[in-house]
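Input record (one chain):
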Amino acid sequence: MKISPKARKIAHDFGINLNDLVSSRTDGKITAEDVQRAIRKKESARAAQPAQTDHGTVVEIGKIQKTSARRLQQSWQQAPHIFVTVSVDMTEAAAFRKEFNQKQANTKLSFNDLIVKAAAAALNEFPQVNVSYLDEDTIMQWDDIHIGIATTTEQGLLVPVLENAAALSLIEISKRIKELAEAARSGKQLSSQPSRFTISNLGMYDVDHFTAIINPPESAILAVSSIRKMPRVDEEGNVAVREMMEITLSLDHRIGDGVLAANFINKIKEFLEHPDEL
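The corresponding structure, as predicted from the sequence alone:
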């Protein structure tokens, strides 16, 4: 084997087997660059494998998870969050969804589709929530309404973007969200636009209540919990079992106060409790 003295020394120092080295030169001579390439390959393979210790396993954080952690840490440290929670009666929404799906052969509406449509409609009426905080002197109010849909994938949490959501029908929203989710799980992003508002729905995971961290540079995020059958008392004092769901808005306190948060989330509630208005 032809190998330069420098390459031999580097291979020895880093424990590289000379028989594993491949030359990049036409004459077959192993160079220092060939050894460096082998070192990088070895380190990458080692990083991909969990490291065993006496007390547990050290697991490398993936690129997507690392990026998400950095952005959310930044958001939590810099954006003062205010949280507002309301209970939504989803009984009419459930009946609306059932009737809708019975009439549609190719499109099956989910509760999440209704929530996205309601949020888009509410953002259309409350443009002061559809903003980004730039600095202490300026806020950017967006004309477009792009909604991020938090989606779990094998690579980590991704947020595919539903563009111009307020202009889409329920059928269009339903079809597009399915396409976006499928692409995200394959590691693809179909949208080229950034989201202005995000929805994080854990309703399918048996969750009573949770809060979400704002996805910068957005100023708000909606956390959606599971639908529960619960007793409710009407205005006449009668008790009935209703389909109830909690939603929580996280709002950047720099762009608005509790009154804005309450009015906005109650507008989402109003749309969901009267789905025929969507």
